[in-house]
Amino acid sequence: MKFTLIGKHETDSRANRDAYVDAMQEMMAKDPKLCHIDCDLYGCINTGKLEKAFPKQTFNAGIAEQNAMGIAAGLTATGRTVFMHSFGCFSSRRAFDQAFMSCAYAQLPVHVLGSDPGVCAAYNGGTHMPFEDMALYMAIPDAVVIDPTDYAMLYDVTKKLAASGKFSFNRMIRKGVTKVYDDGADFEIGKGVTLKDGKDVTIIASGIMVDEALKAEETLAAEGISAKVVDMFTWKPIDEELIVASAKETGCIVTAENHQVKCGLGSAVAQVVAKNVPVPMEMIGIEDRFGQVGAQKFLQEEYGLTASHIVEAAKKAVSRK
Amino acid sequence: MQKEKLKELRVFAEEIRVETLKTIGSLGFGHVGGSMSIVETLAVLYGDVMKVDPKNPRWEDRDWCVMSKGHAGPAMYATLGLKGFYPVTDAYTLNQPHTNFPSHTDRTKTPGIDLTTGSLGQGMSSAVGAALGNKMDGRNSHTFVFVGDGEADEGQVWEGAQFAAHYKLNNLICFVDSNKRQLDGTVDTIMSHGKGLGAKFDAFGWNVIDVADGNDVEQIWNAVQQAYQSDAAPTCIILNTVKGKGCTFAEPSGAHSSQPTKEQWDEAIAAAEARLAEVKAQ
């Protein structure tokens, strides 16, 4: 693992989706067996670029996610590495049985991409807002389930997944996200990233919540609370070692996720904590609610996914020690 | 087709029937009806038209066979066993703890099973994906997929069908096992198929061949030869079959699954063996 934390809370000028497309372009040029299959969403994630450059490796299945997942399985059976994309709601909920049986159960390690995770679905609204995508995929035995943080991480993780030979689900924010890492970062799937060391509380976050956690750390520091911040981009397999060590070091944990807390990152961390080192935990995430339409900023306030919510949760966790 | 070949395939079909019954009979219950209706087609595929290597089940230039109606697994197991992928009696462990022969076909367990099926409709898509991959690789291979007429209720069958036609997968041949029955009754009463399955596939841009007697090896063989001539479209071969064909307890009932008595099993296997002897003697 090798990275440079930027942590200036500034939005990347690049569209996040291009991290995926760039990584795929580089890999496809070297590997004719690497494929992408999409569901009439080339325009949304800029994969038309891939089709143009690699027409024999890029396929449009039309608006038919279940079939696309099956095609991905069949292509994988012919010795290919296949990434399948749709919006997260469809590549999880809609095509889940196909992902489960045709791909994972059949030991055909397709890489499923779900764009617009959680509140990032914003103006597409509640119908398109996956708060349960990660939960579904975490329930699949031996699946790798990832919520990448920014451009540098999505780029690196795409390459790591392609080489992994493991069935995976990977979230993908389409638009500009806060730049947390400098380009060229090198991550290890299954290993959390410690961004700040601290002694009073550990904040374990992923995706858009990592930057919120970093902001919360600054606020807490000003109030004399020392917070450790961990980017837990891999929800499964989860980094048990880091969770246990963090719980021992700081004595309490706050999780923060752009997903429902039931069956999400909070649950995954709690399983490790409860079994190994029971310490007070607070969980930031969606509390058993459906999504709704609106700007992402509004939605983060509405569902309590902001730095100030993390700060309050951290204080509560510290007080429970 | 040459007379000798025809006889060989007829014999092979009856052998598959006997072994399928013995396989399901080893457990005492199972999906007899939909296994019996396709044994002649399996005999044509594995007895003549398919390129396979029992010693190298994942041979890259092989023809593929996907049993999308995955509950007909026992018929596949009998066929592959007789073909030499493993001793045919191995399949008598059907559904026993840790068996390699589960109810529904599983590519991770049984040599010769190309893709995993069971959740209906899914084998269609994955077979289409395999056909696409093999076409991209420039392989001279065909992918055969079996879809049940009841299974064709699943929307995914049609998503797969439109993809295969759009990508001009003429290396894909879909057998529709039109045995006219699904679990709860006849296909016409449970969920009818509008202008018919052949008309539907035709409307989806497929080449469609209707086989009047889908339990006749010669007619099936001829249909496959005709399908091989398709230069752009995938081919659907509608097999007009009889559910439970040739099984003394399953053919009269047309049942999806059966749990007959020991005596009924003995009678069914004896009758199938007698039929095998008869065909051999012809």
Question: How would you explain this protein's 3D organization?
Answer:
The complex is a heterodimer of chains A (321) and B (282). With 321 residues, chain A is of the alpha/beta class. Chain A contains 13 helices and twelve strands. In chain A, 41% of the residues lie in helices and 18% in strands. The radius of gyration of chain A is 19 Å and the shape is globular. Chain B has a five-stranded parallel β-sheet, sandwiched between helices. Chain B has one domain (3-281): Rossmann fold, CATH 3.40.50.970. Chain B is globular. At the A-B interface, helix 4 and helix 6 of A face helix 5 and helix 6 of B.
What is the strand and helix layout of this fold?
The complex is a heterodimer of chains A (321) and B (282).
Chain A (H helix, E strand, L loop, with lengths): L16 H14 L3 E5 L3 H4 L2 H6 L4 E3 L4 H13 L3 E7 H7 L1 H10 L5 E5 L17 H6 L5 E3 L4 H14 L3 E5 L20 E4 L4 E5 L3 H14 L4 E5 L2 E3 L3 H11 L2 E8 L4 H12 L4 E6 L9 H7 L4 H13 L2
Parallel strand pairs in A: 1-2, 1-3, 3-4, 4-6, 5-6, 8-9, 8-11, 11-12
Antiparallel strand pairs in A: 5-10, 7-9
Chain B lengths: L2 H25 L5 H4 L2 H11 L14 E4 L5 H11 L38 H15 L6 E6 L6 H12 L5 E7 L2 E2 L2 E2 H4 L6 H7 L3 E5 L5 H11 L7 E6 L9 H4 L8 H20 L1
Parallel strand pairs in B: 1-2, 2-3, 3-7, 6-7
Antiparallel strand pairs in B: 4-5
Report helical residue fraction of chain B. Answer: 40-55%
Average pLDDT reading of chain A: 97
CATH fold type of chain B? Rossmann fold
Radius of gyration of chain A over alpha carbons?
19 Å
Would you tell me the overall average pLDDT of chain B?
A: 97
Low-confidence stretches of chain A: none
Strand order of the largest sheet of chain B: 1-2-3-7-6
Shape-level CATH architecture of the largest domain in chain A? 3-Layer(aba) Sandwich
Helix content of chain A: 40-55%
- CATH architecture descriptor text of chain B: 3-Layer(aba) Sandwich
